[in-house]
Amino acid sequence: MDSQGQDGQRVVWAVVDSRIGPLMLAASGQGLVNVVFHATGPVCERALSRLAARYGTEPVEEPGAPLLAEAIRQVEAYLAGERRAFDLPLDWSLISGFNRAVLRELADGVPYGTVVGYGDLARRVGQPGGAQAVGTAMGANPLPVVVPCHRVVESDGGIGGFGGGLETKRQLLALEGVLPEPLF
């Protein structure tokens, strides 16, 4: 594979250290396309293979690429408590259908410092009774942190699951003032 896909698409990526562990961020010409937790060794390799298969091009490590550099800056500012919302173009091509509708509603309709229940989010996208399907959509979120799946919680007050691990979810909710600061 070359560095540009069939449609001339280029994918750039970088791994950044953060207070929640190493994050891989990847961007296409359309926008930020992927954020991956625990981005070391095999985790990075799997993510890069998925991106290569999707775009028909080998992703290039290029943290200074303009869109990627801006995404890194905004994620770092968010994790430092200096940013409450992201202003980035997003490439939604890794997700479709119901999952995309749920994640777009989450991105647009659940602001910093608030949470929403799985069932409530299902109702917002016209699928009452779809709480489990919302959970599946959260697990498939290719843009965690930026599309804030950590803000989706159980109706009984539990924090629910999280692809980045429950401790990471607690840290993000504490950062936003939803939970007390974790003791670690």
TrEMBL record:
Family to which the UniProt record says this protein belongs: Belongs to the MGMT family.
Residue span, Methylguanine DNA methyltransferase ribonuclease-like domain: 11-91
Protein name from the UniProt record: Methylated-DNA--protein-cysteine methyltransferase
Swiss-Prot/TrEMBL keywords: Cytoplasm, DNA damage, DNA repair, DNA-binding, Metal-binding, Methyltransferase, Phosphoprotein, Transferase, Zinc
UniProt entry tagged with the keyword DNA repair: yes
EC number per UniProt: 2.1.1.63
Swiss-Prot/TrEMBL GO biological process terms: DNA alkylation repair; methylation
Location within or outside the cell: Cytoplasm
Major subcellular site: cytoplasm
Cofactor(s) this protein requires: Zn(2+)
Active-site residues, as the UniProt record annotates them: 149
Miscellaneous notes: This enzyme catalyzes only one turnover and therefore is not strictly catalytic. According to one definition, an enzyme is a biocatalyst that acts repeatedly and over many reaction cycles.
Stored Pfam families: DNA_binding_1 (PF01035), Methyltransf_1N (PF02870)
KW Phosphoprotein (keyword) present: yes
GO CC annotation, single: cytoplasm
Domain annotation Methylated-DNA-[protein]-cysteine S-methyltransferase DNA binding: ranges: 98-178
Residue ranges that the Swiss-Prot or TrEMBL entry lists as coiled coil: none
Enzyme class label: transferase
PROSITE patterns for the chain: MGMT (PS00374)
Its biological purpose: Involved in the cellular defense against the biological effects of O6-methylguanine (O6-MeG) and O4-methylthymine (O4-MeT) in DNA. Repairs the methylated nucleobase in DNA by stoichiometrically transferring the methyl group to a cysteine residue in the enzyme. This is a suicide reaction: the enzyme is irreversibly inactivated.
Highest taxon in the source lineage: Bacteria
Gene source species: Streptomyces seoulensis
One Gene Ontology term of the molecular function aspect: methylated-DNA-[protein]-cysteine S-methyltransferase activity
Catalytic function, reaction form: a 4-O-methyl-thymidine in DNA + L-cysteinyl-[protein] = a thymidine in DNA + S-methyl-L-cysteinyl-[protein]; a 6-O-methyl-2'-deoxyguanosine in DNA + L-cysteinyl-[protein] = S-methyl-L-cysteinyl-[protein] + a 2'-deoxyguanosine in DNA
InterPro entries per record: MethylDNA_cys_MeTrfase_AS, MethylDNA_cys_MeTrfase_DNA-bd, MethylDNA_cys_MeTrfase_DNAb, MethylG_MeTrfase_N, MGMT, MGMT_N_sf, WH-like_DNA-bd_sf
